[in-house]
Sequence to fold (440 residues):
Amino acid sequence: MTKKKSITEEHRLLRHTKTTAIAVIAIVLLVSLVILKPSAPKKIVLLTGPEGTSYHALGQSYAEYLQQQGLQTDVQVTRGGFENVKQLLGDAKDTVAFAPSNIEHVIGDSEDTSHLVTLGSIAYEPLWLFFRSDLEVRRIPDLAGLRVATGALGTVVNYAARHILELNEMNDQVEIEPSEGQIPEAVAKALADGRIDAAFAMGGPASPVISEMLTDDSISVLSFARADAYQAIDPGIAKVIAPEGIFDFAHNIPPENLVLLSATTNLVTLDNLYPTVAPLMLKAAAAIHSKQRIVTAGESFPSADHVSLPLHRGAARYYDQGEKGLSKFLPYKVTRWLNHLGFVVLPLLALAVVLVKLAPAALRIWGNMRLVALFKQLEEVEKAHAAGSDRSELLDRLDHVDEKSASMFVTRSTVHDYIDFRQFLHDMRERVDTRDDEGA
Fold:
């Protein structure tokens, strides 16, 4: 009867255990999928530049690609590459910025740039010097006495233009137009209307403003004859060549090989950017910059070259191993949750299953410990009996042991030990009951 009762109780316990397991798993799934969100961000901020600049247009192209992949992108208008980096240094979270290589050296020691990293270089960003075609401008010194637009303060083009003028000791020999309101469209119109004589601009040839000025017969572009010297003086400057006719083959634009100075646009971020965002940004770069028309032999973008900051760990893996795993086939919005499933949900579920499986084992151990304690009490009664202790006291102690053992839970694995214990208890009671009779 006792054995049947204990087995029935064990079946009931197992049912309770299964119910508890389902409840625990349900709670884990609820917490993991509803309350705990994936570590990978569903939205990033992309710092670009002033409206109308190549950086801003580039940001919109990136946002379109990234949003197709399921990564929401907030394109923010800024004053340019310098402000972008300063915003990053303000501990901006989930933020990527366009900035020229070597920019941390331009900022100097006034800021802590130790947490800045790069995803790599994504494109050449040529510096153009456009001027009215009726002027004789063959070298930078020919700008003396002319009205020159150098771009808005805080932009890369403004820094590069002033740096070149300074190298040529021309800062006091040109009339630099006020920087306020110098958006590219306004500068191009001012140059076409003759209100200024020359203008520095920065951007790819596909940029609408650059393309418009390249095809305007009233505007010419300077070929930098001393590009090698500029490149040697400033490691942030690269010499690039636009071959004759590369921009418009039918109309032969440019009419001859055009030597340009160029910065290299980098994707800059902080070292805490989530690793899975890096390869997605580089996939966007590969798609957007694959048709770049100003290159040097053997180079392609995105690239781990032309960088002055350490590579982000996710970008380094991308360059070393290429795109790997499910992200190669699935959009980011899917892999974001799959990564969450793999790194958070499955381990929590595994822990829940282990805990549920440990419950019966813990009960068995607890039952064995109680049985061992009862055997010890029975052993003490036996020793007291051998020492001649009072019979009624021994029977009271046996009754107490009997009561405790009758109410204890017995698992299936300990049933035989329990039956043996009950038999020992019965034998011990008989020995105590018959001791006085035998003595008589």
In short: The beta strands are 43-47, 72-76, 95-100, 116-132, 147-149, 175-176, 198-202, 219-221, 238-242, 258-270. The chain has a mean pLDDT of 82.
